[in-house]
């Protein structure tokens, strides 16, 4: 654990030491879990059987965005604890570029969940609208590209509003990435704007859409039961293809509802602690209050990063189609490995068989004896 000069006095507080330990020991666990899980999610969600559903395309892009969030944000935080040097503070350009990328990909991750929730809302509540207009694939790609462009434009101001600021502390100089010339915008205004973009607006939109989806699912289920009761003994039925589509859409809906509610639960605390830090009257004058709040902020940040690490586990727990494709992927790898081992074991036998056949042909054509046959075989091997 690396302790900076201005942190030495704070290390006498238990909660500050706990804050440092959490930043040191939890990130590698989340990085490992998120890296493996997101890569596997990306591989499975881009398989042909999954790509035909637009919801899975959104989730594949979400896996890539979550990976970037972990490496740009969490890994940088962890390496800073290990070495005492934050990449954000290395130079003006790393300060600006890392800030733009970090804000953009984290916002993009949240708004991808809004996009996929909106897509599910249209599919469940307005199914006829999904067949109108251009192809679903084109709409999905346009939405993905448009979201990324808008969120990049929203955060691009960091390329000129932040820079590295040097502050004298005792006999040392502390370099921090800050909005020196735009202090009010970066330190006072933008935290509220970012909280709205990353959490508050997604919270409201997702809650409203999920409520409408759940209400429509309940209504549709009651309607199906009523139709089955009223048409019992008649010829009313769904063919096999329609039943499979209906079941798969229901499973996708349940999985996306879970993902969106988990997102809300794990990202809201980081903005609640931000509001507490801004509004608490004693943060600037009471070291004990500041230390306690810093611990809460660290816990909230780790919860936020865990949201970008655990989607693979959610897909495995809830998504039957995802599990099936994961099992197929694993079984294909095992079959390929067994086939490779069989080929490797059979190769010497095949060479020996080929040698015997070639020798038999030569001896029969030339009328040679068995001694010559053995020497010819030895020569070819």
TrEMBL record:
<keyword id="KW-0472">Membrane</keyword>
<feature type="transmembrane region" description="Helical">
    <location>
        <begin position="252"/>
        <end position="275"/>
    </location>
</feature>
<feature type="transmembrane region" description="Helical">
    <location>
        <begin position="57"/>
        <end position="79"/>
    </location>
</feature>
<feature type="transmembrane region" description="Helical">
    <location>
        <begin position="295"/>
        <end position="318"/>
    </location>
</feature>
<keyword id="KW-0812">Transmembrane</keyword>
<feature type="transmembrane region" description="Helical">
    <location>
        <begin position="195"/>
        <end position="214"/>
    </location>
</feature>
<keyword id="KW-1133">Transmembrane helix</keyword>
<dbReference type="GO" id="GO:0004930">
    <property type="term" value="F:G protein-coupled receptor activity"/>
</dbReference>
<feature type="transmembrane region" description="Helical">
    <location>
        <begin position="141"/>
        <end position="160"/>
    </location>
</feature>
<dbReference type="InterPro" id="IPR000276">
    <property type="entry name" value="GPCR_Rhodpsn"/>
</dbReference>
<protein>
    <recommendedName>
        <fullName>G-protein coupled receptors family 1 profile domain-containing protein</fullName>
    </recommendedName>
</protein>
<dbReference type="GO" id="GO:0016020">
    <property type="term" value="C:membrane"/>
</dbReference>
<feature type="transmembrane region" description="Helical">
    <location>
        <begin position="108"/>
        <end position="129"/>
    </location>
</feature>
<dbReference type="Pfam" id="PF00001">
    <property type="entry name" value="7tm_1"/>
</dbReference>
<dbReference type="InterPro" id="IPR052954">
    <property type="entry name" value="GPCR-Ligand_Int"/>
</dbReference>
<keyword id="KW-0807">Transducer</keyword>
<keyword id="KW-0675">Receptor</keyword>
<feature type="domain" description="G-protein coupled receptors family 1 profile">
    <location>
        <begin position="37"/>
        <end position="315"/>
    </location>
</feature>
<keyword id="KW-0297">G-protein coupled receptor</keyword>
<comment type="similarity">
    <text>Belongs to the G-protein coupled receptor 1 family.</text>
</comment>
<dbReference type="InterPro" id="IPR017452">
    <property type="entry name" value="GPCR_Rhodpsn_7TM"/>
</dbReference>
<feature type="transmembrane region" description="Helical">
    <location>
        <begin position="24"/>
        <end position="45"/>
    </location>
</feature>
